[in-house]
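Recall that a protein's primary structure is simply its ordered list of amino acids. Everything else, from secondary elements to tertiary packing, is in principle encoded there. The following example makes that idea concrete.
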Amino acid sequence: MKYETSHFGVTKAGEPVTAYTLKNSNGMSVTILDYGCTIQSLIVPDKWTKPIDVVLGYKTVEEYEYNTGFLGAFIGRVGNRIGKGTFDLNGKTYHLVQNDNGNHLHGGTVGFDKKIYKARVVGDELVFTGFSPDGEEGYPGNLHMTIRYRLGDDDTLRIMYSAVSDKDTLFNPTNHSYFNLAGSGTVLEHELQIFARQFCVNDNNCLPTGELMNTEGSPFDFNQPKKIGTDITHADAQLRAGSGYDHNFCLSDTSEWKRVAKLSCKDTGISMWCSTTLPGVQFYSANHLTERDGKYGKMGRRDAICLETQVWPDAIHHPDFPSPVLKAGEVYLSQTAYHFERE
């Protein structure tokens, strides 16, 4: 793996931001900022070897600071939603910021996407380390975390998370990249396959109710490849509530390492396989991404999708869901990979 660094800008607090670009031998590269461990660019050669940037992003630090949407960012302490911004743990009630229709979303007002991380290259990995103090955004425990990125010559980008806390806490990190395998335009003609027989039913604020629904025969059935736009405007109540897909899919394969999904674009011939050690994936069809300037021009609603691997949302309030609790002194480990192929 080859890498280079460049100055990306300065935050409003005066902190310099560095971009790290990893390159493999096949013309693929990824640029990651130490601000939010953010994937700013992911270049993949298409079937004609033309380089395509397959993730949405911005040109400047200021745009990452002031825009909503979490483009490409490391999300935590807890990705997705926690109902009413409260949870009980070991007999104590914790109160978090309610930053999403009365619920807590993606770590709060100043989540992990807004931090600067220490970076170093170790062997073939770019390694970021960070610290979240006890009480930050309402969460218990001093949390030390490491996020590692590896770009292999097999055209696979791996993201590896580890963390340890000195108190019992919640931890459910994810990456919030927006993928468009054509590089621009809508993704409604992209084909998507998700290996899940059930998904979490949401209320009108995209918070899981605790009910699981079968995907088979519904607009949520992606067990066979299907164009994203096929059913996205269906009159289904779940799709209407979220203005499209914004749901956790419960992965059918319960083994430690499994395939999550496959995303394909016939125009470029690029396919992306997503795999993980986690039990779920949030498929978000960028329903609320308002029109804005990106690094290559305008971008907006349904111009990309997110595949956020995760423990199921609001799991702390649903004992039957996989647990998001990280015990004091225990080491959290998870891994997600994005593997790219061409026709």
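Residues 61-66 form the longest helix (6 residues). Helices lie at 61-66, 237-242.
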